[in-house]
Design brief:
The protein is of the alpha+beta class and 336 residues long. It has nine helices and 14 strands. The strands form three sheets. Strands 4, 5, 6, 7, 8, 11, 12, 13 and 14 form a nine-stranded mixed sheet that branches.
């Protein structure tokens, strides 16, 4: 049926699993919210061994989960914009532009700035600032509430962000991201020491099966593939300055992958160490440093891409923000 796709898979969770059917379906299909999965299950669109079940049903290993769900393509063809671009009010927020021409621009996003409007949050975002400084981007992109936005950064991650100024540039840059032809490097300050000087993580990433606000990485999931290369730039006692190169752009990718090798990003409130003073009990000189970290120490540092009009290679670097640089300098001073 147009706008729908068939799903069918065998539940292979552990025998003692107590996961609900709606949670499992939502984790298997990240485009569905848990509420949407529950509705489809109640309607009988998703069944277990061809039987209608409640959303709270807990499948056992070997049972077949099948049915019909809205296709991702149909969802993208009928977007429900949070706010139309013409309704986005401009906000006079300073932006630090690193590169710009008539096709695109690259800016250095400060930590703490949300990328685009959301329900209940229609002001003081990066998009509001862009509308003020570059009103010509209205109508550019694939979503009215995200004009010009090619990719995103977490609110508390700083650094490089590309913005398209024309629809042709948007299509070109988006294709480069999708086809993994764009190189993105990040710097991160982490707790712990990685197992080697460099390495690669290829764990898939998807919604956490219990907490829909989190992502998780595991080989035993149908989440989307994710690849992160990392290398040590500097050991700093019980902390390490890391460099990450990502070929995919999954939500929270570096934060999740770095935690998977026991090197959580310092200051990360979701995937990080909840009580760093305990982790640093054998390095008491670092406790004041940890106490002063107020956000995740992750910075989108460098980006390389092909210019959407000229076809020439472009390389841009964003300077490390003052709060992160201050922590690094303090660590150097303490440990010298």
């Amino acid at each position: 049926m147009a706008g729908e796709c068939l799903i069918e898979f065998t539940f292979n969770g552990p025998a003692e699993s107590q996961e609900r059917l709606d949670v499992i379906v939502a984790a298997r299909h990240p485009e569905l919210s848990r509420n949407a999965a529950s509705r489809l299950i109640r309607e009988g669109s998703i069944r277990v061994d061809n039987k209608v079940c409640k959303p709270s049903y807990k499948p056992i290993p070997g049972e077949r989960i099948s049915g019909v769900v809205p296709s991702a393509g149909a969802a993208s063809q009928q977007p429900a914009p949070l706010v139309a671009s013409h309704a986005i009010p401009p906000d006079e927020i300073p932006i630090h532009i690193l590169f710009e021409d008539s096709h695109c621009l690259a800016l250095n996003k400060p930590p703490g700035l949300v990328i685009h409007p959301a329900p209940g949050h229609n002001r003081r975002t990066l998009v509001n600032a862009l509308i003020h400084h570059r009103p010509e981007i209205r109508g550019t992109g694939s979503s009215p509430d995200r004009p010009g936005i090619v990719h995103r950064l977490d609110k508390d991650t700083s650094g490089l962000l590309l913005v398209a100024k024309t629809q042709a540039a948007f299509k070109s840059l988006s294709a480069q991201f999708k086809e993994r032809r764009m190189e993105k490097k990040y710097l991160g300050l982490v707790y712990g020491r990685p197992p080697a000087e460099e390495g690669r993580i290829d764990l898939p990433i998807g919604r956490h099966i219990k907490n829909r606000k989190k992502m998780s990485a595991t080989r035993y999931t149908t989440a989307r593939p994710a690849e992160t290369f990392w290398r040590v730039r500097r050991f700093m006692g019980r902390m390490t300055l890391m460099e990450y190169t990502i070929t995919t752009g999954r939500t929270h990718q570096i934060r999740v992958h770095s935690t998977s090798i026991h090197c959580p990003i310092a200051g990360d409130p979701v995937y990080g160490i909840k009580k760093p003073e305990r982790f640093l009990r054998q390095a008491p000189e670092l406790k004041p440093v940890a106490a002063g970290i107020e956000r995740q120490m992750l910075h989108a540092w460098q980006i390389r891409f092909t210019h959407p009009a000229s076809g020439t290679p472009v390389a841009i670097e964003a300077p490390i923000p003052e709060d992160m640089l201050s922590v690094i300098k303090t660590l150097d001073r303490i440990l010298e």
